[in-house]
Design goal:
Structural class: alpha+beta
Strand content: 15-25%
Helix content: 25-40%
Number of helices: 13
Distance between the termini: 177 Å
Number of strands: 14
Order of helices and strands: HHHHHHHHHHHEEEEEEEHEEHEEEEE
Radius of gyration: 49 Å
Length: 469
């Protein structure tokens, strides 16, 4: 039918747009009809060629936040630097660090990771900011010395002292010095910051530094005083403002308490002051001094207005620097009254120790010296006279009679219950004795005597036996 034939007839091809170039007429019959774009099973048809343009590259100076990682909200830190630093403990490296606690935190994290250049950069940025963070500057200087050497660290902190002159920078600059210059600068910094605290702790550590032979007594005394000041500053709440890392401050406090206890134990277990022993001589008194440590020079002043006497080593040898003075002693006149001797000495560190007051009491010295001699040489108490068999000499007791309250003697097996007559004490010359005052007649056939003394302080000696030779 005509209707079916009309439906089966192909539709005419659409006319090309008016502005499209037409092919030459000669090729019109050979040109195939244009085909629609091919479809693929993998997806939609490919867009026209003219829309496939390369996307513009992003500007690295203006990064846009990724949809998967939204921009970090503004961080709010506590106003207190120590509290701010503590609040960052669980974080990694902070990319937008600006404040001292943030930069200090980054430096610690990078240092722990082994990134020393990054840590030094963070330390340097934090060190340039205002504030008195002793722990920050100490760690910065320590890493500088390890990476670039001591000279570079000294140079960096000399420059920092001009741009950021704070007590912490002055302290770390002093720590970087060497030898005696370091100790002198630390003492000057501590004196210039009374009550501040950190300089006192560093000074104490320097004084107690383990040198050959250990610290001297004067250095221990100075260190003890510095540690006391440091702990007092901590109790007053002064130290907190000088530290950002509270754990750093706690470690210093623990060390200060331990060090102070060690000094107290050392002082309690050994002599810390000189002492003097006085003994009679043929012309007067001899004062011998015992020092608590080695000394290179010793001097003594007798009384408040006496001249200072320099004492060298024994046997007339001249004291040399670094050579301890051995058995220092001076002589005093026989009629010297009760007075005070002031002894000073220079220790191994060339520090002056003293003056230490030492009391000279002739009467007490007579007793103490006599007792010392009697106990040291008991065989000299009494002697049998070979030239006079019936007499016993007790000249040793008479010579030191000022130290004896009474003496008792027993003959043979008898206990010492009979008084032995001693002349009265003569403090001006007790070694002298009246004629015949040191001789005692012995009972016939006496082969042994026993003697016991009661000293001037009331104590008694052991009973001593003396056999006739």
């Amino acid at each position: 039918p005509a209707g079916k034939a009309a439906q089966a007839a192909p539709e005419p091809a659409p006319s090309p747009p008016a502005n499209e170039d037409r092919p030459p007429k000669g090729n019109q019959a050979a040109s195939p009809a244009p085909r629609p774009p091919a479809r693929t099973a993998a997806g939609p048809e490919r867009p026209p060629r003219e829309v496939q343009r390369e996307a513009p590259k992003a500007d690295p100076a203006k990064p846009e936040p990724s949809p998967a990682q939204p921009a970090r909200p503004a961080r709010t830190l506590p106003a207190d630097p120590a509290a701010a630093f503590a609040s960052l403990a669980a974080e990694g490296v902070i990319p937008d660090a600006r404040t001292l606690p943030e930069l200090y935190h980054n430096a610690r994290v990078l240092e722990a990771k082994g990134d020393r250049p990054g840590a030094l950069a963070a330390y340097a940025a934090a060190a340039a900011l205002p504030g008195d963070a002793v722990d920050l500057h100490l760690r910065h200087a320590s890493l500088l010395r390890a990476v670039r050497g001591p000279a570079a660290a000294r140079q960096a902190y000399a420059a920092l002292a001009k741009s950021n002159p704070s007590p912490a920078v002055a302290l770390v600059s002093a720590i970087g010095l060497d030898g005696e210059e370091r100790g002198a600068r630390l003492e000057a910094v501590a004196a210039a910051q009374p009550g501040a605290g950190p300089a006192d702790f560093v000074l104490a550590e320097s004084l107690l530094d383990r040198r050959a032979g250990g610290p001297t007594l004067t250095e221990r005394r100075l260190a003890f005083d510095a540690l006391d000041r440091f702990l007092e500053a901590a109790a007053a709440g002064v130290l907190a403002r000088s530290f950002v890392d509270r754990t750093f401050l706690e470690s210093w406090l623990d060390a200060a308490r331990r060090r102070r206890g060690e000094i107290e134990s050392a002082f309690a277990s050994s002599p810390t002051r000189p002492s003097a022993a006085f003994s009679r001589t043929g012309s007067g008194w001899l004062a011998r001094f015992t020092l608590p440590e080695a000394a290179t020079a010793v001097s003594v002043r007798v009384g408040e207005r006496g001249e200072v006497q320099q004492i060298g080593p024994a046997r007339g040898e001249e004291a040399r620097p670094g050579q301890p003075a051995a058995e220092p002693a001076i002589e005093l006149p026989a009629n010297s009254p009760r007075t005070t001797l002031y002894l000073s000495y220079r220790d191994r560190a060339d520090r002056e120790a003293g003056p230490f007051p030492l009391t000279f009491d002739p009467a007490a010295a007579e007793v103490a010296g006599g007792r010392t001699a009697l106990e040291r040489y008991p065989e000299s108490w009494v002697t049998f006279r070979p030239d006079i068999p019936d007499l016993l000499s007790f000249a040793g007791l008479v010579s030191h009679r000022c130290a004896i309250a009474r003496a008792r003697i027993g003959f043979g097996d008898e206990p010492p219950n009979q008084p032995l007559p001693l002349p009265p004490c003569d403090s001006t010359g007790p070694a002298t004795m009246p004629a015949g005052a040191a001789l005692l007649s012995l009972p016939e056939g006496t082969a042994m005597v026993r003697v016991q003394l009661t000293y001037a302080d009331g104590s008694e000696s052991p009973v001593r036996s003396f056999q006739r030779p």
